[in-house]
């Protein structure tokens, strides 16, 4: 038996996840009629990485697809757009309850204050617990966009650290020669033309951040006036030390070097990729990760740890530069490859 005649709830519902599932399931369990408010840009524009929030249509589709798996035929469900916190709560007299989480409870208190001023009966406030992921932290769309977790709450960094050091099996080398993203073809002598194409792609996509892996790529970007968010370098090109002219743009005094044996991905490098990601978002100054050994494989953990809509650049020997646009699908692809590595 339903507890409430008409229950309302609202949210951004970006990158629909396990927490959203519990939220909606609770509403449909206790409400005869359910109104679901979906926030518009006016309400979410100040959220972290707001530019990577899915379109209204995509978010609405995610809600409808989940509802179709649990809805009872007799239940009335309505989806509305939200341009403010109140939605239909001050107009629809049939509403008798509001569903919130601890993070959104203040909105319900504000609604009840307005209802009291309008001589309306206050709504029953039902607080749904926040869902935690495998790392013990709350699953949120913010953390998904930032690149920390997937929609089930699996933490990419924790997974990498638990498995590290990662050792490349010989049988995987051929598979890794397949570009993980779009290949901009060209030779070393065409690097200026290549970097212009890369910069054009970056400007067109307006990524969350740019991670450039390799001295030639990073140095070429700098020479053309573009500052990557994070540059992963080892002062070498094709295993040979860079000339003084080539390395002059890259070298910074007193930068710690991180040991990464060829054919491996070390735990310390994984940690530093995340540190530099966070540092760049804090101060927006280019960060350098200097490798002692080999940086070739660092594209994989970089894809896994980068925020959604980032771009990761890495060289493909004798072919050109690979441009990886970081999506949830690309993260799964990188994770599947890394899962084939041996654990040290």
Description:
This protein has 344 residues and is of the alpha/beta class. It has 2 domains: 4-146, 3-Layer(aba) Sandwich (Rossmann fold), CATH 3.40.50.620; 156-343, no CATH class. Helices cover 37% and strands 22% of the residues. It has helices at residues 18-30, 41-44, 56-70, 105-117, 141-146, 156-163, 173-176, 191-205, 215-223, 244-247, 267-283, 299-305, 328-338; strands at 4-11, 31-39, 76-82, 97-100, 124-127, 166-167, 182-185, 210-213, 230-233, 236-237, 240-241, 257-260, 264-265, 287-293, 311-316, 320-325, 342-343. The strands form 4 sheets. Strands 7-16-15-8-9-14-12 form a 7-stranded mixed beta sheet, sandwiched between helices. Helix 4 (105-117) links the parallel strand 4 (97-100) and strand 5. The radius of gyration is 24 Å and the shape is elongated.
């Amino acid at each position: 038996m339903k507890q409430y005649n008409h229950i309302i709830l609202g949210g951004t519902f970006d990158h629909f996840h396990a927490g959203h599932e519990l939220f909606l399931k609770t509403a449909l369990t206790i409400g005869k009629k359910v109104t679901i408010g979906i926030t518009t840009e006016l309400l979410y524009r100040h959220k972290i990485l707001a530019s990577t929030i899915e379109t209204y249509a995509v978010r609405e589709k995610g809600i409808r697809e989940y509802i179709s798996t649990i809805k009872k035929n007799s239940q009335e469900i309505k989806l509305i757009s939200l341009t403010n916190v109140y939605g239909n709560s001050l107009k629809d007299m049939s509403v008798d309850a509001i569903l919130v989480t601890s993070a959104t409870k203040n909105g319900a208190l504000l609604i009840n204050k307005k209802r009291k001023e309008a001589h309306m009966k206050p709504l029953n406030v039902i607080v749904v617990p926040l869902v935690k992921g495998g790392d013990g932290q709350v699953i949120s769309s913010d953390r998904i966009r930032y690149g920390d977790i997937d929609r089930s709450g699996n933490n990419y960094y924790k997974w990498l650290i638990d498995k590290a050091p990662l050792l490349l099996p010989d049988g995987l080398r051929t598979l890794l020669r397949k570009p993980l993203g779009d290949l901009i073809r060209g030779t070393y002598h065409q690097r200026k033309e290549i970097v212009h194409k890369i910069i054009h792609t970056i400007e067109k996509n307006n990524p969350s951040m740019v991670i450039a892996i390799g001295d030639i790529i990073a140095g070429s970007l700098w020479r053309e006036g573009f500052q990557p968010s994070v540059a992963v370098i080892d002062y070498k090109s094709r295993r040979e030390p860079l000339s003084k002219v080539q390395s002059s743009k890259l070298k910074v005094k007193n930068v710690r070097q991180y040991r990464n044996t060829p054919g491996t991905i070390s735990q310390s490098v994984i940690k530093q990729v995340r540190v530099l990601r966070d540092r760049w978002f804090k101060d927006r100054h280019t960060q350098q990760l200097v490798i002692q050994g080999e940086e070739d494989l660092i594209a994989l953990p970089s894809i896994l740890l980068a925020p959604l809509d980032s771009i990761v650049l890495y060289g493909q020997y004798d072919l050109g530069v690979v441009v990886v646009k970081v999506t949830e699908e690309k993260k799964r692809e990188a994770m599947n490859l890394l899962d084939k590595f041996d654990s040290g």
